[in-house]
Amino acid sequence: MLRGPRLSVLMCLALYVSQGWCGCVEVDSRTEAVTGHGFKLGCISCKRRGEVAASAYVEWYFQAKGESDFVQIYEYRDQTPAILHEQFLERLAWNGSKRTDDLQDGSLYILNVTLNDTGTYRCHFYRTLFLHIQDHHTNATKLVQLSVVEEANRELTSIISEVFMYLCIVGFQVGIVLVLVLCYKKTAAAARESEREKEPLDSKDNCAGIQVDE
Q: How far apart are CA 201 and CA 163, in angstroms?
């Protein structure tokens, strides 16, 4: 059974995580793919209230280059994927949140990219927050302007996005360590103070015992 400083540290960590510091970072998707290779269409929508239970589903739409309309190509609902356009049959794979209905990452992975995949991709997040009074519905939309090239050309924006993502992850981990250290120091100091307060009482009890024996 956990007691004292260890239990307090765990409680502090739980509080820290419940306040929304869950490590979700909204990073923009890369925008350049190479023919014949795979490509990740990034779409992240972080839940603002981490302590509230929720569920979400995701829809993806595609507007081909030179076209004016969007067509739905994919849906992920109730942990079930569905490819809805013949151009992408057997070429789309879910690359987002797994084994949960509380989706925050709705990314897709395109297999064997072709020049015809150039265009605008639109990701829709539909989220339901299960509040005590009544459910609250929200939605978010992300756009990805994808260009397809025959040879890789690393974009500066993608490099910056990746660096930012790693910095956020490192910062989150450092934050957890700092919270644990501060909580441990605080509880340890409280424990020492409690021990000091008990010492005079113990001394008086011992003296009283000696007088009675005499």
A: 58
Q: What is the pLDDT of residue 178?
A: 86
Question: Rounded CA gap, 188 and 184, in Å?
Answer: 6
> Cα separation of 100 and 156, whole Å?
33
Q: Domain 24-152, what fold? A: Immunoglobulin-like (2.60.40)
Give the start-to-end residue ranges of the domains of the chain.
24-152, 154-191
Please say whether the beta carbons of 27 and 60 come within 8 A. Answer: no
Residue 75: HSE in the Cβ half-sphere, 13 Å Cα cutoff: 8
How far apart are alpha carbons 130 and 148 in whole angstroms?
Answer: 41
**Cα(148)–Cα(65) distance, rounded to whole angstroms?**
11
Enumerate residues 6+ apart whose C-beta is below 8 A from 73: 60, 61, 62, 83, 84, 85, 87, 88, 92
Rounded alpha-carbon distances, angstroms, from residue 121 to 42, 61, 198, 207: 10, 6, 68, 82
Tokens for 163, please give them.
Answer: 């660096």
Regions of the chain short of the pLDDT cut 50: 1-2, 5-22, 212-214
pLDDT at 202: 54
